[in-house]
Amino acid sequence: MLNSLKTRQSAGAGSAYIAGSFFVAGVLTYAFQSASFHVLGKAGAAPLTLLWSATFLTVQVLWIGGTQTLGHYIAEREARGMDWGPVVSSVRRWHVGLAVTFAGVALIASPLLTEELFGNSWLTAAFIVAVIFYAPEYFRRGIFNGHRQSLRLGVQIMAESAARLLLAAVLLAFGWGVFGPAIAIVIAPVVGVLAVRPAPVAPPERAGDDFSARNALRFAGPVLLCMAFAQALMNGGPIIARLLDGTDAQVGLFAAALILTRIPQYVFSPAIGALLPRASRVLSTEGRRAFDRFVARALGVVGLVGVLMVAGTWMFGGWGLRLFAGAEFDASRAVLVALATMAAFYLFSDALNQGLFALGQGRLAALGWFVGLLACSVCLTVLGGGVVERVAYSLALGTFFASVAQGVFYLLTWIRRGDTGG
Length: 422
Hints:
The chain has about 425 residues and is mainly α.
């Protein structure tokens, strides 16, 4: 469909395409969420928010490792003129094996998922199918990244989001209730894959060595752990609220507040992710002192964004929530500010991650998120109050401890190195 487009863009243009596509996709995604909340109401939207949280938490954990592996090793082999086919074949087998394993485990656990989480067997089935359908979508993202086809990757992301919104709007208008948006979540990744195909690339100059996905996990493993722990904090809130016996109204209210306060985090996360290549170049060409200055400037900007996020939520959060989800959605200022604080600390930790990754300390970055997850678990145990308040405060404290731990780990790499002169 896009065969006439250029298959290569400069690094700057590629970053701009990705940032722009995430912005458009974010707008479409929030329109999808807003329409669902307005039509379904606070209690009626709870099963959908649980489906959303469970699906994307699982998708990130299962498939992001393959995406990262494809992007890294295809680009590396292509730059050397080597055949990248063994990489593609190995990761494809990896994805197929994971998909089969997930399907088997999920089917065995489906009665428990239905009883404890979704409350409906059809929604459980939607969860299982949606996670599997996202496997080829994330596989294709890795192909696009590896061949630097940033425009195609951006179009795929926007096609997925647009399909989800349009299909949900039509089915909600026809009175399908929660099953309309649920079907849209399932179908959207299929549309993304079918809408855009990889562009032809020049054949490799020589054969490539055998490739082992197991060895590639040494590269993707820390990234995967960071993603799993971070997503448990960022997307796990509605699921935690349900497991704490929260009512549909409480789960729906919490999810709406969480989605609203995460809007700036969703917009800025792609820009933070783009810091890694720049940080790596600064470290390799200018030394550790310049690298530390670069990281400090990035953290300063992210910290300012976080302060503005919290201040904006304190002033306009209640009004924004009612506009976004509907008049019946009324969360306290304390809950909204706590969730905005969680999103701000997430951005701060994400920026620290880029510094640790550039230093080859991905395991420390993952350990920092794990500390935050443990802190959140302790807070859930000891804090009192209502379900919504308890979960919001625990998640905010969890991301705070994650950012503190990663900051300490970053400083320890500097002290251990003993390099004050760069």
